């Protein structure tokens, strides 16, 4: 559905108007998400790019590694127990998704509702905490767009 909507938006009159309306001026920063180039890249990633998947445990590890290598600074320390904050989701969408959406799967059971089924995969997250069969779809600049579970 997201690919279809994005493809139709790109080809539509409204999509072309959005690109024209977001042309940079002196008041806007050139690295803004709303520049025509950035908006076009986002639409291209949504419509045609691959959408990588990463487990929650691997996402936390990637965030912690980014902090320890001075590649990122977060207001909230990434940890398995505390959950992903918007700043973490934005980083993952940019770093893992390379500007395209990214699926984060297998969240800790303690962070999700009781009705979610346990993960069926052998999640080697090096934590004793059980995980559940779920996902969040992270989109650049927007963060979580949709989530689902078994």
Automatic annotation (TrEMBL):
InterPro entries recorded: Aa-tRNA-synt_II, aa-tRNA-synth_II/BPL/LPL
Record's keyword terms, sorted: Aminoacyl-tRNA synthetase, ATP-binding, Ligase, Nucleotide-binding, Protein biosynthesis
Signal peptide positions on this chain: none
E.C. no: 6.1.1.22
Matches recorded under Pfam families: tRNA-synt_2 (PF00152)
A GO molecular-function annotation: asparagine-tRNA ligase activity
Domain Aminoacyl-tRNA synthetase class II (D/K/N), chain residue ranges per copy: 46-150
Top-level EC class: ligase
Name under which the protein is recorded: Asparaginyl-tRNA synthetase
Gene source species: Cryomyces antarcticus
Lineage: Eukaryota, Fungi, Dikarya, Ascomycota, Pezizomycotina
């Amino acid at each position: 559905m997201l690919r279809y909507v994005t493809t139709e938006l790109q080809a539509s009159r409204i999509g072309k108007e959005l690109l024209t309306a977001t042309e940079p001026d002196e008041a806007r920063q050139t690295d803004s998400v709303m520049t025509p180039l950035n908006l076009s890249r986002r639409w291209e990633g949504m419509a045609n790019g691959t959408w990588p998947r990463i487990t929650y445990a691997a996402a936390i590890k990637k965030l912690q590694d980014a902090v320890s290598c001075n590649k990122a600074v977060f207001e909230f320390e990434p940890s398995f127990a505390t959950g992903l904050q918007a700043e973490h989701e934005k980083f993952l969408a940019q770093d893992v998704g390379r500007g395209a959406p990214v699926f984060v799967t297998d969240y800790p059971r303690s962070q999700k509702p009781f009705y979610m089924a346990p993960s069926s995969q052998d999640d080697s997250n090096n934590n004793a905490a059980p995980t559940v069969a779920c996902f969040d779809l992270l989109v650049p600049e927007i963060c979580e767009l949709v989530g689902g579970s078994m």
